[in-house]
Amino acid sequence: MKYAAATVLLSESGTRGHRGFFASFQATTIVGGLVLAQACLLALLLISDRVGISEWGWRVAFVAGGVAGLASQWWARGFKRGASGAGTASSAGASSAAVSSSPKPARSGQSSTMKALFRNTWRPIV
């Protein structure tokens, strides 16, 4: 379920003509995560034995994942939001305070995206 939702979110976030490219990142990151996990296990096996990995070594992968997650959050703060570049992470606090609790009507000619869904009706989701 989450895999399909993440793929839809990625494809809806993509620009027209590039939505398949954006959706492909879901599968790519899964394979990349598996390769990184195997590389971590290989590195641990080179410096320790199986008993050591069972006792303490498994924590190394969790710490590395936590550090990578925090680093990616810090890195993503600099990206502009949306195709129009209307807001950046630095102005996210100001723009979130201006969001009303009632859904905004869709403008004619505007495409329906997951981004618009979350932006306009975020209270029931949370």
TrEMBL record:
Keyword line: Cell membrane, Membrane, Symport, Transmembrane, Transmembrane helix, Transport
Region (Disordered): 82-113
Transmembrane segments: 21-44, 56-76
Mode of membrane association: Multi-pass membrane protein
Subcellular compartments: Cell membrane
SUPFAM superfamilies: MFS general substrate transporter (SSF103473)
Main location group: membrane
Stretches with biased composition (Low complexity): 82-102
PANTHER family reported in the protein's UniProt record: ALPHA-KETOGLUTARATE PERMEASE
Name by which UniProt lists this protein: Major facilitator superfamily (MFS) profile domain-containing protein
Organism: Herbiconiux daphne
Taxonomic lineage of the native organism: Bacteria, Bacillati, Actinomycetota, Actinomycetes, Micrococcales
